[in-house]
Amino acid sequence: MTAQKLWNKNFLLLWLGHAQSGIGNALYIVALSYLILDLTGSPKFTAITMAAAAAPYILSPLAGTIVDRIHMKRYLVIGDFVRGSLMLIICLFGAYGTLNVLMIVGVALLLGFVGLIYRPSFAVLLPRLVPQSDVGRANALNGLTGQISNLLGFSFGGVLVAWMGPISAIFINGVTFCMMAFLLMLIQFPNIHRKSSSNINVWAEVREGFQFLLSSKILFMIPIIFFFMNISYSPLEILMPLKMKALGKGPEGYGIFFAILFIGAIMVSAWISKFGKNLNTRLNTTIGLSVMALALGGVAASPNFFVCCVSSLVFGAGTSLVSTSNVTYVQTEVDESFRGRIFGIFGTVEQVGMPASLALIGFFVDIVKPEVILYTMTLLLVVVSSVWFVVNKQSANSKSLDLS
After folding, report:
1. If you count Cβ atoms within 10 Å of the first and of the last residue's Cβ in the chain, which end, N or C, has fewer?
2. Domains along the chain with CATH numbers
3. pTM for this structure?
4. Of 354, 351, 317, residue with least CA distance to 143
5. pLDDT tens digits for 334-392?
6. Distance CA 266, CA 243 (A)
């Protein structure tokens, strides 16, 4: 099955599913924070719960290998029904007043294991549902809905939780999982002739995936880029309250900063979704990394709130450009039989990057000024951008030599 246009029935169903599920997930994060705070009186248990949900992603390369071996539809449908049921279990125990933090951590761990297959599955599925020239636009559209969902979910999540209570918001998230399962049932998954065989040891295929990743300098650079994207973004959540205080702003300034960051990402995703046919993924990654570095330096040096907000807008734009370009590159340039494994490896790198960076920032934040940390991350992005540029130039030169 080859899609003849971007907006076909299968992609539309997947896009709608992502949109409504993204809003539910944002509501869940807000509701979970308040629910755990109500139960324990300490925000540290929220961090423990998030860590429990992320821990299974160490097995993401294995999940990616499984994606390369199976017809994924039934597993995705069942998995979303399971995730929806887990949300409803929290609501049930909460309604009867028997919910405790250990149950929530246990559910988070189960959600992590069930969710392992989704990142590589959707990354592999999307280029099969749209024309190859429109893969970049399709990724941008998914990114656009995700960013808008986050903006709406986090902006209005607190209001909704205050009005309806955290249990009701978690119930809504459970419904969105069930809706996603229903929409997946309606999607016609293409039949693919896989090179992988059930006779081959699954761990051998995991190893084969790593070997394939290491066989290309450009491909090897992509998880490194994802890692440094995470360690440049996630610490902002810790450092921005300090920066806002220095600029004479409070929590409202913090909220405006991240809202503007999302708006920058939305703007770029919208642009790519409209004009990103045959997206030049390598060039746009170079531009995006450079823009991120410039913006992060701007945040560090900003003498006032206005400059800080402009830098936030530019940083959000850069992250969207890099993320969309990298994912599109793998979906269009990597052999189909390896995509699940490659995206599985990416999943581990992304999940490890965030807690690692938060732990480092937590250690240094009492020792050095926030600006020093931000300048350090700026320098790291400059280095990564420069290495990416050199690797791509070498690749282009080697192709020119081959042609001659």
Report:
1. C
2. 1-188 (1.20.1250.20), 216-395 (1.20.1250.20)
3. 0.84
4. 317
5. 888 888 889 888 888 777 666 666 666 666 767 788 888 889 999 999 999 999 999 98
6. 24
